[in-house]
Specification:
The N terminus is likely disordered. Helix 1 packs parallel to helix 7. The protein has 2 domains: about 190 residues, FAD/NAD(P)-binding domain; about 120 residues, FAD/NAD(P)-binding domain (3-Layer(bba) Sandwich), CATH 3.50.50. Strands 1, 2, 5, 6, 7, 8 and 20 form a 7-stranded mixed beta sheet that branches. Strands 10-17-11-12-13 form a 5-stranded parallel beta sheet, covered by helices on one side. The chain is built from 7 helices and 21 strands. The chain is elongated. By secondary structure, it is an alpha/beta fold. The structure holds flavin-adenine dinucleotide. Flavin-adenine dinucleotide binds next to helix 1, helix 2 and helix 7.
Length: about 325
């Protein structure tokens, strides 16, 4: 192990991997599995927990559109994807964000700098999804005070829910799915949305209508209260005075702020188009040796789904192999 004054506590890998994969969501994990199945050495970096949006945004949500599964909890699906990659011998590095990717000075490929190491690779596969996420807040004065004391931004695991009255704020698919999931555990669930229409899949709306969740539209949570923990929220319907709704759980689901961590500033000089990397059908970017897959990529007809992310991960792995064994 060498030391480098610019990166004093960083390990310098002596091996050169065939491919370094940045991002351990569905696309990155499946790419790692398929690279190993093709006999390529790889290292996969994940800034947070393996699983991507499946664990960072909606860990308890039942996923109903993944092939061969009538229903699978997103966290469980993520766990199985990581397990499969490990089973095939992929080197997986969790809680290790990549801070930059540049070219190796000797022309041998790329240098990947993470928070813990400097690794070399002949090819790079970018599977950063939408980046790392932090939840959008409501912007209310007591939000900070009740955070973790009844106010949460993502669905806790079933074992950690002991609420009697839950209020969910939001009007998208996540908010709807969250309210329905909570109703199976919490006696009273209210969904508050600031618009008159809920923007969710029709089958989710049908499930919502049948769920017993109370829905308040054209309304906003304008305040919250309680002694040491949350016990009520104030909900204002347009043109009416705010009323008190008992709530020992407030789940705010009004979006997430993505952070691509300065990807466009990396030495590769990648050109992002509306926050996405344009690729062709082989998942090659405009830079030789750099591939991309999953939510970060854009091409005509692209849809952001787990099934497409995993398909693109496997296509990218095949393209990396072709690049290393045929083109290079
Ligand atoms: C609320 C919600 C519900 C959804 N429900 C469904 C559904 O039911 N069915 C479905 O098919 N799709 C669903 N999707 C879409 C699906 O989650 C995504 O299409 C899929 O997760 C994309 O996978 P990915 O691997 O491309 O990206 P991601 O899942 O975003 O994973 C990217 C990973 O890269 C990591 N990363 C980012 N930057 C770095 C860095 N610098 N260094 C290291 N790691 C980094 C991130 O931490 C993240 O873990 C949903 C999306 C949302 C937001």
């Amino acid at each position: 192990m060498q030391t480098d004054s610019a990166f004093p506590s960083v390990e310098h890998e002596s091996v050169t991997y065939d491919v370094a994969i940045v991002g351990g969501g569905p696309a990155g994990l499946v790419a790692a599995t398929h690279c190993r199945m093709r006999g390529l050495s790889s290292i996969t970096f994940e800034a947070q927990e393996f699983g991507g949006q499946l664990v960072s945004l909606y860990p308890s949500k039942p996923v109903t559109n993944f092939p061969a599964h009538l229903e699978v909890a997103s966290g469980e699906l993520a766990r199985r994807l990581a397990e499969q990659a490990a089973h095939f011998g992929a080197e997986l590095r969790e809680h290790e964000a990549v801070e930059s990717v540049g070219y190796a000075g000797d022309g041998s490929g790329f240098v990947v700098r993470s928070t813990r190491r400097v690794a070399r690779a002949h090819a790079v596969l970018l599977a950063l999804g939408l980046g790392r996420f932090r939840p959008q807040q409501l912007g209310l004065k007591d939000e900070y005070r009740f955070a973790g004391r009844g106010l949460v931004y993502r669905l806790p695991s079933r074992d950690n829910i002991a609420a009697h009255h839950a209020v969910v704020v939001g009007g998208g698919d996540t908010a709807v799915d969250t309210a329905i999931a909570l109703k199976a555990i919490v006696p009273e669930v209210t969904l508050v949305h600031r618009r008159l229409n809920i923007r969710a899949y029709p089958h989710s709306l049908e499930r919502l209508n049948a769920s017993g969740v109370q829905v308040i539209l054209d309304a906003e949570v304008v305040g919250m209260g309680g002694d040491s923990v949350l016990d009520h929220v104030l909900v204002a319907v347009r043109d009416q005075e705010a009323r008190v709704i008992p709530a020992d759980l407030l789940l705010v689901s009004v979006g997430q702020v993505p952070d691509l961590g300065g990807l466009s500033g990396w030495d590769l000089k990648l050109t992002l188009d509306g926050g996405h990397l344009p690729v062709g059908s082989s998942m090659r970017t405009t830079i030789p040796g750099v591939f991309a897959a999953g939510d970060i990529v854009a091409y005509p007809g692209k849809i952001k789904m787990i099934a497409t992310a995993v398909a693109e991960g496997s296509i990218a792995a095949a393209s990396v192999e072709r690049y290393l064994r045929v083109d290079a």
